[in-house]
């Protein structure tokens, strides 16, 4: 079976390939005690000196998810590259449940990657596929294969071939430099989208993954911009007096919820992107901000201090009814829905500081899933398995990610100063 | 430690009547906090109805405000706030009174009131808190007779800290409203 990585993802990679990079690296900070042992055998290379270690990328992806514990390469007796060469008994002796074998060969100007996923305990092949990739797409090919393996074993769609947007900042006071970046979900292939001496914040992916909405102070006032990532073209969506903040796309991509203080206190508005018509959905003397849409588009979660401190509320589109969702503690803010709509991730303050928590919407139970004291800006992977967020390491801001159940986590350190405001893209293929 | 030595040197400077603020960012911020706090507490200078500095000459703040009543923009252009609060601390009322006097006597002058928070809490919520602080200053100035058309509000939330660092000193210096003329 021949699989081509979708053309627009290729176009995106090509478009970014010539621009400046500021990659993030990955440090696993906690592995899950429920991880499944898997062996990702180094792929045979047919004598080629490959620019990327495809098996290592796959292995790192699977480990980062918290679902898998890859076998150390040193522990492997041999390095089969096809299922025919695998002596299953030997691998069962290493307590491996699954294994991945493969081969990379030159084809035209690019590469062909053949791989197989094997069930070691059942001595059977689960998946076999052949993928073509240009030289610059080898990493993308490895992410695609990781997605297939992840879904084949867990039943959950993989989210390795996705991207993250984030903001970097350096300096203090009147001497600061901000930049908005987009990178692969593993921190590689980072590309600058915008740089400015004025603040940039709140990047939000359009549901088709082609655009970012964000807040930029480049005119020395906050304004919301929408930028097309492939062409670089952008428009200023709003620049009202006061706060223009927290843009959030509706699931159909036709509306943008946001916080505007043009009428006094910040209130939640819905802007129709095509017509630029605004509908105001909150109206009080309190702070209302940080809107986000439910996956079905029927409700909007937002932060309000109408009860005193910040708490999360849900506005139902259509009926206009608003209900308070959070009651644990006196600070719950910036919520994001899980893709199934059944739980939310948020910033919760307790005696341990500001941490990422998950609240089940059915039971109302809130569970803290991050471990530092200054965690914020949670953004959920499109398959719901991981949450990426901003935290502090020493005096620097870094990105970190934790599995939705809190069992596994990793950090993405950077040499670029503070990194913050991560936004996980939707599925891109 | 550094904070205290700043305060001590500032107190010395005040006692020698060298009141003109230095222009280095850190020094001004440390100094204006400690200096005005001491002055305000010592003399009770900051009655909110006090329109001019006359009659309160015993306080260093009164002197400073008085000297800058007309032509010059007041030297102290940053005031500070308590955690999670937007009320004007009493020791900064004299600073606002001086700015109100300047703005009233210079009808063409315009100022952007830039509201800031410390880094704790979520960014967009802090954007709203920064705006609240700037609005509190705006209301104070309007009560003092400043025309709303001279005043503009910009909240930077936690995006432009005056100083870096995740400790109480840094937080205290970052929770502020800056007068940007």
Please give a structural write-up.
The complex is a heterodimer of chains A (429) and B (181). Chain A is mainly β and 429 residues long. Chain A folds into two domains: 31-154, Rossmann fold (3-Layer(aba) Sandwich); 163-424, TolB, C-terminal domain (Neuraminidase). Helix content of chain A is 10%, strand content 45%. In chain A, strands 1-7-6-5-3-4 form a six-stranded mixed β-sheet, covered by helices on one side. Chain A has a five-stranded antiparallel β-sheet with strand order 2-30-29-28-27, with no helix packed on it. In chain A, a hairpin with a 2-residue loop joins β24 and β25. The relative contact order of chain A is 0.13. Mean pLDDT of chain A is 92; it is low at 1-19. Chain B contains six helices and four strands, in the order αααβαβαβαβ. In chain B, α1 (2-15) crosses α2 and α3 packs parallel to α4 (93-105). The chains are: A mainly beta (429), B alpha+beta (181). Chains A and B meet through loops of A and α5 and β3 of B.
Q: Which percent range describes the beta-strand content of chain B? A: 5-15%
User: Given the structure, what is the number of helices of chain B?
Assistant: 6
Could you give the count of β-strands of chain B?
4
Major sheet attributes of chain A: 6 strands, mixed
**What is the assembly state of the chains in this entry?**
heterodimer
Number of helix segments of chain A?
4
CATH architecture of chain B: 2-Layer Sandwich
Helix and strand arrangement:
The complex is a heterodimer of chains A (429) and B (181).
Chain A: E1 2-4, H1 7-16, E2 27-30, E3 36-40, H2 54-64, E4 68-70, H3 88-92, E5 98-107, E6 110-119, E7 124-134, H4 138-154, E8 163-172, E9 175-184, E10 191-196, E11 200-205, E12 211-216, E13 223-228, E14 234-238, E15 244-249, E16 255-260, E17 267-272, E18 278-280, E19 288-293, E20 299-304, E21 311-316, E22 322-324, E23 332-337, E24 343-350, E25 353-360, E26 366-368, E27 376-380, E28 386-393, E29 396-403, E30 409-412, E31 418-424
Parallel strand pairs in A: 1-7, 3-4, 3-5
Antiparallel strand pairs in A: 2-30, 5-6, 6-7, 8-9, 8-31, 9-10, 11-12, 12-13, 13-14, 15-16, 16-17, 17-18, 19-20, 20-21, 21-22, 23-24, 24-25, 25-26, 27-28, 28-29, 29-30
Chain B: H1 2-15, H2 25-43, H3 60-67, E1 78-80, H4 93-105, E2 111-116, H5 123-143, E3 151-157, H6 168-174, E4 176-180
Parallel strand pairs in B: 2-3
Antiparallel strand pairs in B: 1-4, 2-4
């Amino acid at each position: 079976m021949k699989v081509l990585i979708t053309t627009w993802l290729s176009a995106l990679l090509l478009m970014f390939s010539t621009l400046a990079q500021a990659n993030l690296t990955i440090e696993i900070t906690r592995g899950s005690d429920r991880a499944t042992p898997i062996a990702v055998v180094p792929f045979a290379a047919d004598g080629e000196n490959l620019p990327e270690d495809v098996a290592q990328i796959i292995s790192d992806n699977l480990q980062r998810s918290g679902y898998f514990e890859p076998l150390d390469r040193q522990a492997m007796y041999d390095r089969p590259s096809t299922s025919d060469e695998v002596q299953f008994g030997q691998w069962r002796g290493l307590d491996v449940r699954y294994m991945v074998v493969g081969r990379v060969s030159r084809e035209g100007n690019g590469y062909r990657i053949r791989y197989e996923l094997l069930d070691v305990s059942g001595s059977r092949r689960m998946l076999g596929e052949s993928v073509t990739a240009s030289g610059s797409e080898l990493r993308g090919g490895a992410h695609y294969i990781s997605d297939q393996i992840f879904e084949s074993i867990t039943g959950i769609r993989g989210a390795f071939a996705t991207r993250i947007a984030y903001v970097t900042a350096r300096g203090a006071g009147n001497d600061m430099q901000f930049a908005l970046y987009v990178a692969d979900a593993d921190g590689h292939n980072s590309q600058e989208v915008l740089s400015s001496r004025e603040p940039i914040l709140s990047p939000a992916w359009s549901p088709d993954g082609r655009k970012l909405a964000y807040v930029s102070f480049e005119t020395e006032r906050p304004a919301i911009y929408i930028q097309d990532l492939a062409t670089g073209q952008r428009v200023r969506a709003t620049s009202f007096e006061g706060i223009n903040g927290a843009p959030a796309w509706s699931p159909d991509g036709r509306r943008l919820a946001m916080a505007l203080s043009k009428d006094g206190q910040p209130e939640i508005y819905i802007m129709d992107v095509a017509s630029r018509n605004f509908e105001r959905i909150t109206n009080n003397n309190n702070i209302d901000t940080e809107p986000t849409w439910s996956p079905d588009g029927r409700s909007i979660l937002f932060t309000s201090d109408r009860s005193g401190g910040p708490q999360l509320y849900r506005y139902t589109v259509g009926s206009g009814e608003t209900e308070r969702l959070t009651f644990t503690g006196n600070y719950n803010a910036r919520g994001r829905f899980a893709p199934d709509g059944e739980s939310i991730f948020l910033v919760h303050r307790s005696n341990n500081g500001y941490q990422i928590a998950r609240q089940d919407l059915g039971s109302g139970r809130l569970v803290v899933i991050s471990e530092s004291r200054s965690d914020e800006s949670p953004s959920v992977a499109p398959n719901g398995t991981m949450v990426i967020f901003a935290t502090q390491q020493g005096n620097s801001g870094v990105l970190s990610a934790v599995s939705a159940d809190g069992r596994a986590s990793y950090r993405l350190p950077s040499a670029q100063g503070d990194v913050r405001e991560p936004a996980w893209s939707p599925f891109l293929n | 430690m550094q904070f205290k030595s700043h305060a001590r040197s500032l107190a010395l400077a005040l006692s020698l009547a060298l009141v003109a603020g230095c222009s280095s960012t850190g020094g001004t911020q440390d100094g204006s906090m400690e200096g005005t706090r001491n002055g305000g507490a010592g003399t009770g200078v900051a009655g909110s109805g006090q329109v001019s500095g006359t009659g309160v000459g015993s306080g260093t703040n009164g002197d400073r405000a008085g000297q800058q009543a007309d032509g010059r923009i007041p030297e102290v252009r940053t005031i500070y706030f308590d955690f999670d609060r937007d009320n004007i601390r009493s020791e900064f009322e004299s600073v606002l009174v001086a700015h109100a006097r300047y703005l009233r006597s210079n009808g063409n002058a315009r100022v952007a009131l830039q509201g800031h928070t410390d880094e704790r809490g979520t960014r967009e919520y802090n954007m709203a808190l920064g705006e609240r602080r700037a609005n509190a200053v705006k209301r104070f100035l309007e009560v003092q007779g400043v025309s709303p058309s001279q005043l503009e509000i910009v909240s930077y939330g936690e995006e432009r800290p005056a100083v870096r660092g995740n400790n109480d000193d840094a937080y205290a210096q970052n929770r502020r409203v800056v007068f940007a003329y």
